[in-house]
Amino acid sequence: MMVVLLGATTALAYRNTLPGQFVYDDKKIIFNNPLIQKLDRIPLLFGTPYWGMNIGQPKTFKGSLYRPLTMVTFALNYYVGALDPNGYHVMNLVLHIGVSLLLWLLCLRLGIGPSAARAAAFLFAVLPIHTEAVSNIVGRSELLSSFFVLLAWNLATGHPRRRHWVLGSVSFMLALLSKENAAALLPVLILTDYVIYKTSWKTLANERLLVWVAYAGALLLYLEWRYLIIGSITNAGGIPYFISQNGLEIYLTMARFILFHYLRPLVLGIGLCADYTRPALADARVGDISSWAWAFLLSGAVAYAFYSVIKKRNLLSLCVIIFFGLLFPVSNLLMRLEVIGAERFVYLPSLGYCMGVGLLLEKTMRSKILKSSGEILVLASLILWYGWRTYDRNKAWQTEESFWSTTVQDAPRSPRSWNGVGYVLMTQKKYDEAIQDFNKALQLNPMLLDADYNMATCFFLEGDYRRAKKGYLYVAQWKPYDPGTLFHLAYLAEKEHDIKSAEKYYVTILTANPWDEMARMNLGKLETRRRAGEVQL
């Protein structure tokens, strides 16, 4: 009955995601990715970075995220339904239901009461802050990683037999191959064991050492493999969001960000936004008193929770530590990311919040602050509120136009938002309006190359080839293996009868992506024309 009710509730909240299209990052990761289009290319996914579908380009230009298992699921989706987004959305929904069910089972295995466990699972299923992970197809890395993290956690909890923790370590490895932040499971698992087993560290180590070693071995094996493929363990790739700021300024900025852009929308279900960036978000300064206040508030809460876990083995405090422990890898405090944050980063950590709310409801019922009917009423109210907010938020992710129009409303000073709105206008052939929006984006962030590329494309479509070429050449200085830029430059070179340059661009495309049929065909046409004497080098 629990499985049916939880599945139906989740499906009801997310049913309007199923007709959704490919949006934003879906285009590059899925729609334009040749590596997922044939099953015999799956082995290549294990030797290629997440953003590095151009396998022939030099290593210095490859991304440093590594999520091959997530990419394998996209390849399977493509095999079944090609580029029909419906199948991808169905898979995301199924995974989210699976994660919610595993959270319910984990709560029971941790000794949490049945009513608290049910509450945690239902709340997790409909939290509005999860829409970015579930509604956005490439959010699957969060779903898949969380599924295997919870499976590994379930298999390691209690008094598992050898085959259980061996399977758990394999599941942990699969979680790491889905997304890097799964590494936080190991310290959280150890601390949870300390609270649940209620024994001394020495006794606990004697009982649980083999489990910890097995999971640590999986983590070390993953890190070694990742280093071989990526060339780095902690480098997330790209240009870090924080470059010139010192550690204290980063901490002050992140403390304020976590409070207002993670915890507030997590708890209240409002204030959601798909893009957080400068200048909409100002960096905190050492002399900023309010930033210090928020940092002390957050640090004090985490410190007290940790103290309560160590000294009192308090289960509610453990939920706080679970949240912040699982959030730590994506907090910009351990490794520098390209973004300050994203709602999808809260997907796995939010299980700590849901467990905590479930425990609070159960505690109030036991202390007779609330009767059983009162607890059900509070829980039902939360589920209805969160579920409605989730359903409404899903609408933003249905099309490229709905996504960017919503994002520019949520973040009017976001350069990416204006670039996205301009892109939509460009697809509608409203080139003058699109160029205005691209200029707005570049005023906010002069280094936003996507806006430069899109503006050049507007000029190209209008027939202003001189300005288009100038724009593409500028983008190529920073992104020398970008296929769109190279295709346009090759076309313009052909129009100028510069066949040598055109061939050079096509060869570069094929060097990066040997399966680019269009580049191969165009290069072949040039060769045929040259043999026929139509063109000369």
Description of the structure:
The protein is an all-alpha fold and 537 residues long. The chain has 24 helices and no strands.
Following the backbone from N to C, one meets helices and strands in this order, namely HHHHHHHHHHHHHHHHHHHHHHHH
Question: Could you report the average pLDDT, rounded to the nearest whole number?
Answer: 92
Number of domains: 2
How much helicity do the residues have?
55-70%
In one word, what is the shape?
A: globular
Question: In what range is the share of β-strand residues?
Answer: under 5%
Q: What value does the Rg take, in angstroms?
A: 25 Å
- What's the total helix number? 24
Short description:
68% of the residues lie in helices and 0% in strands.
Supply the key terms.
537 residues; mainly alpha; Serine Threonine Protein Phosphatase 5, Tetratricopeptide repeat; 2 domains; 24 helices; 68% helix; 0% strand; globular
Topology (SSEs and partners):
Blueprint: H1 2-14, H2 26-31, H3 42-45, H4 68-81, H5 85-109, H6 114-126, H7 131-135, H8 140-156, H9 162-178, H10 185-197, H11 201-230, H12 247-268, H13 289-312, H14 315-327, H15 350-366, H16 372-394, H17 400-410, H18 415-427, H19 431-444, H20 449-462, H21 465-478, H22 483-495, H23 499-512, H24 517-531
Helix pairs in contact: 1-5, 1-6, 1-16, 4-5, 4-9, 5-6, 5-8, 6-15, 6-16, 8-9, 9-11, 10-11, 10-14, 12-13, 13-14, 14-15, 15-16, 17-18, 18-19, 18-20, 19-20, 20-21, 21-22, 22-23, 23-24
